[in-house]
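re: ur question from yesterday

yeah so i grabbed the chain u mentioned. its 104 aa long if i counted rite. heres the sequnce exactly as i have it in my notes:
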Amino acid sequence: FPSHDIELSTAPTISFKDDIQAIIGGNCSMNGCHGNDAQSEFSLTSYSKVMSEGDIKPGNAKASKFYKVLLINFGEEKMPPKGPLTDLQIKKVFLWIEQGAKDN
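ran it thru and got these structure tokens back, copy pasting raw so excuse formatting
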């Protein structure tokens, strides 16, 4: 795993609504990917869908499928398929999950 281990006590609070939803909306939930259309294997359009479909383990990013799949940068498993998220975006996902993956 990359070095996303961050001192949680001094890290900024990551918001699902302001941070994570923006990352998902700009990279994951477009038509044909993880939106609400019929082509979507699974939808990431709401907090509850992200929690269930992303197999998120609050407090444990490294055991959460949603985080782990973002670290794959090659082959058919690569997400998003058009290129990786920025390191900052991945760190925000990591922090949000480590902070309890709250609907905030």
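noticed a couple things. The mean pLDDT is 84. also The radius of gyration is 13 Å.
anyway ttyl
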